[in-house]
What we know:
This protein is α/β, with parallel strands linked by helices and 241 residues long. It has a domain at 1-24 and 36-79 and 192-241: P-loop containing nucleotide triphosphate hydrolases (Rossmann fold, 3-Layer(aba) Sandwich), CATH 3.40.50. Helix content is 39%, strand content 27%. The protein has nine helices and ten strands. The protein has a six-stranded mixed sheet, with helices on both faces. Strands 2-1-4-5 form a four-stranded antiparallel sheet, with helices on one face. A hairpin with a 2-residue loop joins strand 4 and strand 5. Adenosine-5'-diphosphate binds at residues 14, 17, 19, 37, 39-45.
Amino acid sequence: MTTIIEARDLSKTYGDVQALSHVTLSVEKGALFGLLGPNGSGKTTMIKMLTGQTRPTVGSATVLGVDVIRDPVGVRGLVGIIPEQETPPSFLTAIEYLEFVAAVRKITDIEKKADWWFDFLDFADKKNVLCKDLSRGTRQKLMFTQAFIHEPELALIDEPLINFDPIMQDLVKDYLAGYVKKGKTIFISTHILEVAEEICSGFAILHKGTLLHTGPVTGLTARGEHLPSFFLSLVRKDRHV
Ligand SMILES: Nc1ncnc2c1ncn2[C@@H]1O[C@H](COP(=O)(O)OP(=O)(O)O)[C@@H](O)[C@H]1O
Ligand SMILES: [Mg+2]
């Protein structure tokens, strides 16, 4: 097995806020890994550290074999990322934004690849519309496209289904499941537990910056447990400690 993400003892403090405390976890190639946790549990902080957007206070991590502290630019060059709440630049049209991404990432054949995505996510009619005039859902389609258009070995998505309607959520879930079948790896954060149970192969539960559990989803289902009730029992127990 090839390890794609290896985080060792990662901690992050913002002033006197301990956002993440000594998190150690690994993700293998081909996994669709879900990072679960209530609001404020440290999911976004974890993704930011794994993608070289913020430096850990303590600990280390390698992503696709690259050290995220020593070479954050190298990591960002390799992976696909959809940061939380991110929207494309307001002053570019949808296609101009993808051309911009293609120039930065040195992607060839961008017109053809972009057309495939416009068609797949059903927003070809928005190709020449300025991003400031796109709906939230369409902006998310564009963010999704920029994360996958270079077919990265690893994509990290902070809340992938937010802003999508049920039809689009279904399409995106199928796409993610198909993507890992090709041997690629996906790391998502979500607080929609049913989605995690449906599509994830492995998961971790964060609560107040601490890792409460990490393991395969099949381990749970083999014991007849469901992820949502498992999650709630762990988090509630922790709350009463
Ligand atoms: N830039 C920041 N400055 C100060 N505190 C932050 C910052 N980013 C996150 N936090 C705090 O760190 C904790 C974890 O936040 P976050 O990683 O965004 O959690 P989640 O994504 O699980 O909701 C929260 O208490 C949040 O308020
Ligand atoms: Mg978050």
